[in-house]
């Protein structure tokens, strides 16, 4: 196994070892505190008792010393614990800021680039000419602007080119094996296949939770790794089976991620109406100001989905990913959500992941994924007529064909 392939397991092992050491230190600190308290009390009892017996010390003074010992010991222990907690808090804040700024190349990105660069021949001493004509000595040294990223996403195809990927903790298992797929601009592409075929991994790569270990993903021919991750996130909307809602109001959840001075109440209501969410929202006790609970626990699954769709409509990103967005809904909720999704996908570059093939029959193209590769590609009618794996899936689900 090569050096880059060992990076992530080594990091995980380092975290495990650090956690073990931290546990040992905390246990040692508590044990030491108890020993100090008990030894101090024994010393006080012995020394103080002898002083009291000799008449050199009153019982009240001795009791005061015992109380001071308890107070001082636990104060010191509390200060030490607080200091440790503060260090952990500062580390967490630093990590959160790093994620929000998305300026640092994370371990998974470094892992992916390292594996790819290991397999590439040097180009003029690692010099690379970017689309803007500048020459850079490192693959990631020139990040494009967000406006350029958005323009490309609205006008160009997204192409997964010979993409290989293995998760860092299982670097010997290739989840994707040379997957090649074009997601055409302004059209709906569906990705179907059995469980474990690699569909969810494709979503994670397109959302840039990970980077390919080999191959690349491009938008209008430009490798997406030349864009800052935060900027890339602005052009992608992801609606999945279990949308993330926060313990805030309905309106705040719809507008989440957008600056307060950019989004008006009227725009929030307009997005909710388009997502078939306005009617149920105004029936809530405080309307758009109603708190949804932790992870939207006070709402039904269909209501949470429609709020997530309203959020995506308000964001107006050019690239949309729907990952099993209707799989957990009842028939009535699915109809309302599907109507909202059809409006959301209109004119956008869309990738739909689905197990239920009835939800993707009208896609412009359907790609069948198996063993980390695209095995079949075409329209619903073309793939059924072909009689391959897609036709077998259709037969299994007993769709009513036209």
From TrEMBL:
Q: Which UniProt keywords apply?
A: ATP-binding, Membrane, Nucleotide-binding, Transmembrane, Transmembrane helix, Transport
Q: Which organism is it from?
A: Triticum turgidum subsp. durum (Durum wheat)
Q: Which GO terms describe its cellular component?
A: mitochondrial inner membrane
Name the Gene Ontology molecular function terms of this record.
ABC-type oligopeptide transporter activity; ATP binding; ATP hydrolysis activity
Q: Which GO terms describe its biological process?
A: oligopeptide export from mitochondrion
Protein name from the UniProt record:
ABC transporter B family member 28
Q: Specify where it is mainly localized.
A: membrane
Name the SUPFAM superfamilies on file. ABC transporter transmembrane region, P-loop containing nucleoside triphosphate hydrolases
């Amino acid at each position: 196994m090569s050096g880059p392939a060992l990076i992530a397991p080594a990091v995980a092992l380092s975290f495990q070892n650090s956690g073990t050491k931290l546990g040992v230190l905390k246990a040692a600190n508590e044990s030491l505190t108890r020993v100090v308290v008990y030894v101090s009390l024994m010393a006080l009892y012995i020394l103080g008792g002898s002083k009291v017996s000799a008449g050199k010390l009153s019982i009240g003074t001795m009791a005061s010393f015992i109380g001071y010992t308890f107070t001082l010991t636990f104060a010191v222990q509390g200060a030490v614990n607080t200091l440790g907690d503060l260090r952990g808090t500062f580390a967490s804040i630093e990590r959160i800021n790093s994620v929000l700024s998305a300026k640092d190349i994370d371990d998974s990105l470094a892992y992916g680039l390292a594996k790819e660069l290991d397999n590439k021949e040097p180009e003029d001493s690692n010099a690379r000419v970017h689309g803007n004509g500048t020459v850079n000595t490192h693959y990631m040294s020139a990040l494009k602007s967000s406006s350029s990223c958005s323009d490309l996403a609205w006008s160009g195809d997204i192409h997964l080119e010979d993409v290989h990927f293995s998760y860092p903790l299982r670097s010997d298992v290739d989840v994707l094996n040379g997957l090649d797929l074009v997601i055409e601009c302004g059209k709906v592409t569906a990705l179907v296949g059995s469980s474990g075929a690699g569909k969810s991994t494709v979503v994670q790569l397109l959302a840039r939770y990970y980077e390919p270990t080999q191959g690349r993903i491009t938008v209008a021919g430009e490798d997406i790794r030349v864009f800052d991750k935060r900027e890339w996130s602005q052009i992608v909307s992801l609606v999945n089976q279990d949308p993330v809602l926060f313990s805030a109001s309905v309106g705040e959840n719809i507008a989440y991620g957008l600056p307060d001075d950019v989004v008006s109440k009227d725009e929030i209501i307009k997005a909710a109406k388009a997502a078939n969410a306005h009617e149920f929202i105004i029936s809530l006790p405080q309307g758009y100001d109603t708190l949804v609970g932790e992870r939207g626990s006070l709402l039904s699954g269909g209501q949470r989905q429609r709020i997530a769709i309203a959020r995506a409509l308000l964001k107006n990103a050019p690239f949309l990913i729907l990952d099993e967005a209707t799989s957990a809904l009842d028939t009535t909720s699915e109809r309302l959500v599907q109507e909202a999704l059809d409006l959301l996908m209109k004119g956008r570059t869309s990738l739909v992941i689905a197990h239920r093939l009835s939800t993707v029959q009208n896609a412009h193209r359907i790609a069948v994924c198996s063993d980390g590769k695209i095995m079949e590609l075409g329209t619903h009618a073309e793939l059924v007529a072909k009689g391959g794996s897609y036709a077998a899936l259709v037969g299994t689900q007993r769709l009513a064909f036209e």
